[in-house]
Amino acid sequence: MEIRMKWFYLLGFLLLLFFVIYIFLKLQPVWQPVINVVFTVLLPFFIAAFISYLLHPVIEILHEKGMNRGLAIVVIYMLFFGGLGFGIYKGIPAIIEQIRELSESAPKVAEQYRHWVYVFENKTSHWPFGVHERMEDSITMLESRLENLMSNVMGYLTRIFDFVLLFALIPFIAFYFLKDFDSIKKMVWYLTPKKWRKQGVAFLGDINESLGGYIRGQIIVCAAIGSISALLFWIVGMDYPLVLGTIIGITNIIPYFGPIIGAVPAGIIAASVSFKMVMITLVIVFILQFLEGNILSPLIVGKSLHMHPLFIILALLAGGEIGGVAGLIVAVPILAVIKVCMIHARSHFSKKEEMVPD
């Protein structure tokens, strides 16, 4: 009887939870504008905090080697934001120009693929009805997306420029985060209830150990792979090397699936040039994966996550289904945080059970 009542209580709790969630979603027009304003205001702080988190270990290393802490902050700060600003100043116009050229050449690329489909259709006329129509529809969709690529990019840039003042604050916020890092830690320590302090420090330490090295290493590896791929594509005379290098660099952060996703645009563009360029592109992709898998990642990233590949693949599939490419990028870091949460939750509840008298 007691077990049955527990099930009834659990069912009632779930029904109440679903009802609250339903009401919350129905009231979305009320709270959505508030969430948007809060998110817009706090976004520069989140970005600045993330940048400070990435740069702080480098500053600590320089400080331990004898450099004055303030000077170390200024040096790393200027190198990071100076290099980032120079890259944006020089790189963004060149990338936009190549995207414009790619968008304008969409009919030519589509025509080349239609010619190949025509030859393919003559040799596969016995194939089932509908196969060739699907191929033609795919080419038409590809042409449409390439033609709209420039307008989409400019639309995203326009949105970014709408928040240019907020993004301009990021370097200043990041500087104060770096300068007052220890003070911020003390403030968080005193604001945290005493009973949670020890466990909270251990929890954040484990997340930092599991995730910090991985994120910093992945950013360095992705930047290296993107730069090397753009350089190699430029050397062999491939069209749009900066665009392709940027795509390969960004998607390389996705384990296992990233190299495939990044290689697809390069393969499509290479196929519109010649079969020789396709083979050259495959060789370049193979070289990049060899560098990333056997040299860069083991040397820079290492095995900081300590997770089985099956769990990583499962997280990637779930992230891709929920959030597309963005979901694929954040899936592994979220999995690492969930892993740490589960370990600490198990430790917490096991301690509580030990404290309960028999």
Automatic annotation (TrEMBL):
UniProt topology in membrane: Multi-pass membrane protein
Entry superkingdom: Bacteria
GO biological process, one term: transmembrane transport
Location relative to the cell: Membrane
Pfam families named in the record: AI-2E_transport
Transmembrane region(s): 7-25, 37-59, 71-92, 156-178, 219-236, 311-338
UniProt main location, coarse: membrane
One CC-aspect GO term: membrane
Alphabetically ordered keywords of this record: Membrane, Transmembrane, Transmembrane helix
InterPro entries: AI-2E-like
Family indicated by similarity: Belongs to the autoinducer-2 exporter (AI-2E) (TC 2.A.86) family.
Protein's name according to its UniProt entry: AI-2E family transporter
Species annotation: Peribacillus glennii
Source lineage: Bacteria, Bacillati, Bacillota, Bacilli, Bacillales
